[in-house]
Amino acid sequence: MNGNRVALTQLTTGLLVLWGLATASLMAIAFVGETAFLGWALAGAVLITALARPFPRAGLVLGVVAGLVFFAIQLYQALSTTSSAVQNNGLALSTIGSSLSSLVDPTRLLLSAVFLLVAGLLGDLVAGQMTGTKAQMEQDAMVIQELTIRDGLTGAMKRSYCEVIFQGEIERARRYKRTFSIVVLTADNWDAVVKDRGRDGAAEVMRVAGDVVMKGVRVMDTVSRYDEALFLVLLPETTGSGAATLVDRMCREIMGLASVRFRGGVAEFPNDGVTKDELMGEAEAAVVFARSMDLNVASRSALV
Questions:
Q1: Residues spanned by the domain of 133
Q2: Which residues share a beta bridge with 230?
Q3: What is the mean pLDDT of residues 172-200?
Q4: How far apart, in whole angstroms, are the C-alpha atoms of residue 33 and residue 41?
Q5: Which terminus of the chain is more exposed, N or C, with fewer CB under 10 A?
Q6: Nearest CA to 186 among 280, 121, 47, 53?
Q7: pLDDT tens readout for residues 194-239
Q8: Are 118 and 193 within one domain?
Q9: How many Cβ atoms are within 10 Å of 138's Cβ, its own excluded?
Q10: At what angle do helices 58-89 and 36-52 cross, to 10 degrees?
């Protein structure tokens, strides 16, 4: 779709350039003299303004203005020539009209105005297509970036991007003396799940789990697929007990939908650690503790 739009824009741009040249050439041939250059200048001004698009329908507006300007100048030149002839040659009043009509050809003037108007309309069309193409390309770039940073199966952020956010959250919390919690959420006996359900069945489990986790967090939270069967969740402005309550609910929902046991380990900044390694170590140790005690979630600060 995007390729077709670009091709259409290029084709229309080419037609616009050809039409602009035809317009300028027509005006130069039809009005040889001092206004020939003016024809080229007006045709160029219409095309440039239409493509620059300083305001909607700029090409159409300038096409009309250019046609009126060209007509006015032609009429002024004809009147000046006729007036000079009257003064120098003493032309009779009855012959002034025919002399003026011979200098101003309405057909040529009308044709030039139409060409300028069509040039403006084509310019507006090209400008609109260029704007649409640019917007489509920007949207495509955003989609590509989203696909780059997101796991295709679960929609969670990829690990490399999450680690940058993780470090930034630590620095923010340290600077403003705020608290936040992290959650390590992982499946029990993942190898057995893969063996029993196959790769496709295991992938479906992670898709369901990812959907539960993504829907269960706030916009300000970050969910990452940190490993094949492990999610890391960053919860700004959240205590360890608050995070534990949230994760316990997620584990119950995943169990109900996928029939696979997930357990969570919570670590709170700064009570459980002040570096990424310390917090991850604490959260992973909490998962081990939760498994040993047959709990859905565990943390140093709270047990659920």
A1: 2-147
A2: 186, 227
A3: 95
A4: 14
A5: N
A6: 280
A7: 999 999 999 999 999 999 999 999 999 999 999 999 999 999 999 9
A8: no
A9: 10
A10: 160
Residue 77 falls inside a structural domain: yes
* Mean pLDDT over each residue of the chain, to the nearest integer: 78
Side-chain-facing half-sphere of 71: CA atoms under 13 Å: 17
CB 240 within 8 A of CB 184: no
Same domain, 81 and 192: no
Q: Are 30 and 108 in contact (CB under 8 A)?
A: yes
- Whether 134 and 202 have beta carbons less than 8 Å apart is answered as no
| Euclidean distance between CA atoms 170 and 179, whole angstroms | 9
> How many separate helices (H) and strands (E) can be counted in the chain?
9, 6
Write down the pLDDT at residue 132. Answer: 65
**Residue 304 lies inside a defined structural domain of this protein:** no
Give the pair of three-digit tokens for residue 267.
Answer: 């670590």
**Of all helices (H) and strands (E), which one includes residue 209?**
helix 190-216
Same domain assignment for residues 134 and 17? yes
Q: Which two tokens stand for residue 195?
A: 């063996």
Please state the φ and ψ torsions of residue 264, each to the nearest 5 degrees. -125, 145
Q: At what angle do helices 36-52 and 106-149 cross, to 10 degrees?
A: 30
Tokens of 196: 């029993």
Q: Specify the DSSP class assigned to residue 156.
A: P
Distance CA 304, CA 299 (A): 9
Q: What pTM was computed for the model?
A: 0.55
In the chain, the number of structural domains is 2
Looking up residue 222, the CATH number of its domain turns out to be 3.30.70.270
Same domain, 162 and 142: no
Rounded to whole angstroms, the Cα distance separating 250 from 185 reads 9
Tally Cβ neighbours within 10 Å of residue 194: 17
Handedness of CA 290, 292, 295, 301 (dihedral sign): negative
Neighbours of 231 (CB within 10 A): 29
